[in-house]
Amino acid sequence: MQTVICMKWGTRYGADYVNRLHSTLQRQTERPTRLVCFTDDTDGIDPAVQCEPIPDINLPETLRSPPWRKLAIWCDPLADIEGDALFLDLDLVITGNIDEMFDYEPGRFVAIENWTQPGQNIANTSAFRFPVGKFTHIYTEFDKDPQRWIDQYVIEQVYISREIADMAFWPAAWCVSFKHSLLPAWPLRFFKTPPLPEETKIVAFTGKPDQDEAARGEWPAKWYKKLYKHVRPTLWISEHWK
Question: What pTM does this model have?
């Protein structure tokens, strides 16, 4: 059984994001695969999704929502999960079979090389696989003195990248950013629809636009930013994210 993990807290993403992730996983895997959602609100989530409470983590009140909360999944034990687990953010679309992501570099922490910091050995944690129970210091050391690590690294994925020596990156073609990898350069984005490369397995929608907004060709932004924050309706998103 392959295990995929996601997290949902607060109101930024609704239960429909979890449900779409689950249904997409069933289409984009050929092996038995379960989705485990760590959440503070199970209302509306498909009963086929295994829901678990978010593990306790020592966070300053000002950081209750940002990605630092994701460090909770590095604790041990982690529900009933063992072995390699694949973590996926809710702001992404699975567009290809992900079984290979469980076979690639087994037993290691494998992540996306951050699109905006190439060559700096920094992971993007939109999609990563990790051996549950192996790198527990990521959780325990942060939990002891969170402000130390926040002051030192500022960003959660930089902390993980610098504190795990045994790290590998997915093949670049597997995981892409909608904005940084696929969106045509200005002014071509007014005339060309973002393409979907055949090799792509994961498309991440960090920030704005969200998946549904990009599918409709909407990019929420202030009027003066509309000069460059523009996307044409992208129909392949709806074909995969359902």
Answer: 0.95
